[in-house]
Amino acid sequence: MRKLKQFIAGDEDGDRGESFLEEDSDGSCSLTATQRMYAFAACLAAGLAFMFLSLIVFVKPIKFALLFTFGNIFAVGSTAFLIGTGQQLTMMFDSTRVYATSIYLGFVVISLICALLIHNKILTLIAILCEICALIWYSLSYIPFARTMVSNLMVRVFDTEL
Q: What's the predicted TM-score (pTM) here?
C-alpha cells in the first residue's frame, strides 16, 4: 500500500510533492489520501457489483436497467473521490467531451424514466443499449485519439462499395 501511495503521490525518489489525491480544487474534502482511496475502491466495487447483479436479472429489463444504471453512476462517480467533484465535473464537461458527457447523462436519465415511470420493457432495453454505447463513447474520450480511431474503423467496416 505504501508503494502504491508513493507512486500516486509521485514520490518515487523520496521527494515529497503534492499528489492529485492531496490537492483539492475547492478545499471541501476532509478525507485523507488513504480514506479517499478506500472510498474510491468501495464506490467502484459497489458499481461493479450492481452491474454484475444486473446481468443476473437480465430477463427482467426494468430491474436490469435500474441495477445497471446505478452501477454506471457509482462507477463513473467513484473517480470523484480521487480527484474531487469539482475537477471531475470540469473534466466531464471539458470541450473535448461535453457532447459525450451530455449524451451519456441524457441516456442515464432516459433509462431511469423508461424503467421507473413508463414501465415499458422494449423502451427500457433500447435506452440501456443507447446508454451502453454512450458510456463507451464517453470512456473513449479519455484516451487520446481513441474516438478518431474507432470512427475511422467504423467507416472502413461499414463502407461497402456497391
A: 0.75
